[in-house]
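Backbone-to-sequence.
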């Protein structure tokens, strides 16, 4: 499927829930968000039908996200159903890793290929501060479990927050030295809670290059990846920089997003949505609605 700019759209991100078991200060309000009723979010069956329509149109990479995807009831079923779709080459999740220890084996056996794990600090107290309620040991255990069952290559996502974790860039980067783990530094986007919370400040990813002048730039393998990759000398893993603020990557965008309520979002910078659940209810052709939306 190509859009009107000739970009090939082959990547779908599905949010399977808005709920989360953490309250990261830049993402969630302290009390969480109101729980939607079961009927208001896509059912497991609806997710499968919609995923199949996208795959029929050429989507071959699907990532499940949230909220926290591992708190979604039926997540294993969702993974199994999507993994079985013919044409799927890559099925991954982005998770905070808290529940991964107990779920890693089952996730792998249902067909999940790999995980991105979000971790903004390596220090227990700071982790508790930024997530408000999290225990960092759960994430470390989750990373170990993911390695053990082969949910690899593992990518660690770190959102850089001024004055909070800019002093840990070197330590986080060192995680790539001994193992094939990628650590990706993400610039904080001024959205949601990040806008409201004054203690949460933006810092440009340029700081990573300043702190780690020894980084070796790597050739871009996948132009649609938002990350630009580097390597520490002799390291096994890579360091990625994702710069949504200081460097736009729209030109190579290959992705669309589906919300937990079934709304298709075509661009992070636009509020426009297409309600695919309505389309499902009215028994119209999902494929043609998706093609129209992508063309627009
Ligand atoms: N709960 C899962 C997790 O934390 O990995 C998946 C959903 S979370 C919204 C996905 C990613 O978005 C996480 O890596 C998180 O750190 C990042 N994120 C959330 N708010 C952000 C913001 N304002 N700017 C940049 N990244 C953000
Ligand atoms: Fe939850 Fe992920 Fe948001 Fe943190 S970043 S509050 S883990 S959804």
């Amino acid at each position: 499927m190509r859009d009107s700019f000739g970009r090939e759209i082959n990547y779908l991100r599905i949010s399977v829930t808005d709920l989360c078991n953490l309250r990261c200060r830049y993402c969630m309000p302290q009390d969480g968000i109101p729980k939607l009723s079961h009927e208001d979010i896509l059912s497991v069956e609806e997710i499968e039908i919609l995923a199949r329509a996208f795959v029929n149109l050429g989507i071959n990479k699907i990532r499940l996200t949230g909220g926290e995807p591992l708190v979604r009831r039926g997540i294993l079923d969702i993974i199994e159903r999507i993994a079985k779709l013919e044409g799927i080459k890559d099925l991954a999740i982005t998770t905070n890793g808290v529940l991964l220890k107990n779920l890693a084996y089952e996730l792998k056996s249902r067909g999940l290929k790999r995980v991105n794990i979000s971790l903004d600090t390596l220090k227990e107290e700071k982790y508790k501060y930024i997530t408000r309620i999290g225990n960092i040991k759960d994430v470390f255990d989750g990373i170990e479990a993911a390695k053990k069952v082969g949910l690899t290559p593992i990518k660690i996502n770190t959102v850089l927050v001024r004055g909070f974790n800019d002093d840990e860039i070197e330590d986080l980067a060192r995680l790539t030295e001994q193992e094939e783990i990628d650590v990706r530094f993400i610039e904080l986007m001024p959205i949601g809670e990040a806008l409201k919370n004054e203690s949460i400040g933006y810092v440009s990813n340029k700081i990573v290059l300043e702190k780690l002048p020894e980084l070796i730039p790597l050739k871009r393998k996948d132009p649609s990846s938002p990350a630009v990759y580097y390597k520490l000398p002799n390291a096994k893993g890579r360091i990625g920089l994702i710069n949504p603020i200081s460097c736009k990557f729209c030109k190579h965008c290959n992705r669309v997003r589906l919300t937990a309520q079934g709304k298709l979002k075509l661009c992070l910078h636009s509020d426009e949505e297409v309600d695919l659940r309505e389309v499902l209810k009215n028994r119209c052709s999902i494929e043609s609605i998706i093609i129209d939306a992508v063309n627009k």
